[in-house]
Amino acid sequence: METHHLAGSRTRDETHRRLPRLSHPAGDLPRSSMEGWHPLYPGHIPTSPLQKALLAAGSAVMALCDPYRHDMVAVLGETTGCLALPNLRDKMKNHPEGYRILQERPRIRLSTLDMARLQGLPDGSLGREYVRFLEDNKVSPDTRMPPKFVDDEELAYVIQRYREVHDLMHTLLGMPTNMLGEVVVKWFEAVQTGLPMCVLGAAFGPVRLSSRKLQVLATELVPWAIRSGLNASCVLNVYYEQRWEQPVESLREELGIFPPPPVRV
């Protein structure tokens, strides 16, 4: 029995040596396209323009059917952001605080946040209101998916940063995570970032809202979100991790975000 086991092992080893080893995450690509390939960042999956188009179409359909499919929303953002992401990167490079963020690459994760310190900050401060938002809506910054389909390491960080400050946009805008609140934030982000994913969410998100909420959205919230998005400086140029003590109202005023309208969302 032992001799048979050893012989079987040799056979498997020889077979393994004869087979090509596929270390590429997209192992079904032609071998010629894999030679000399190196991942741009952990988890990166290279895709052709056609593959990106197919991924964008499929993820758009899934995201419209279920707006809470964050994985599909993430894929849509990565495969359609080829024009918006370089523009956002350039805005960050041309701003002192944004440039420092690009250089230092901070991450907003539970592992990087001192939750006890943030909970102890005064009411109204960015850190305290951010933690309150996470607790009230039962969300975590760790749910933000890492990028996969962005074929530039720096741009991959830009979209990662956008995802990780999304909850801070909710905090600054005073919007919950229900459908109405998400649509309002998407309108603001669409104007701010130009990402097609945000435009799509802003345009098609309201189809699930009641007539009463649609009226509030159209007459109060969307005009405010658009005006604020146009008036505000780029929200990716804020080193939020160094602003936790700053009052939310002060940061809104600094950025140029108008106070939220007095309506229940």
TrEMBL record:
Its EC number is 4.1.1.130. Residues 1-34 are annotated as: Disordered. Keywords: Lyase, Membrane, Metal-binding, Mitochondrion, Mitochondrion inner membrane, Ubiquinone biosynthesis, Zinc. Zn(2+) binds at H166, D167, H170, E182. Its cofactor is Zn(2+). One of its GO terms (molecular function) is zinc ion binding. The keyword Mitochondrion applies. It catalyses: a 4-hydroxy-3-methoxy-5-(all-trans-polyprenyl)benzoate + H(+) = a 2-methoxy-6-(all-trans-polyprenyl)phenol + CO2. It holds the Pfam family Coq4. It is a peripheral membrane protein. Residues 1-17 have a biased composition (Basic and acidic residues). It is an enzyme of class 4 (lyase). GO terms for cellular component: extrinsic component of mitochondrial inner membrane. InterPro entries: Coq4, Coq4_euk. Pathway: Cofactor biosynthesis; ubiquinone biosynthesis. It is found in: Mitochondrion inner membrane. Its main location: mitochondrion. Lyase that catalyzes the C1-decarboxylation of 4-hydroxy-3-methoxy-5-(all-trans-polyprenyl)benzoic acid into 2-methoxy-6-(all-trans-polyprenyl)phenol during ubiquinone biosynthesis. Belongs to the COQ4 family. Component of a multi-subunit COQ enzyme complex, composed of at least COQ3, COQ4, COQ5, COQ6, COQ7 and COQ9. This is Ubiquinone biosynthesis protein COQ4 homolog, mitochondrial. The gene is COQ4.
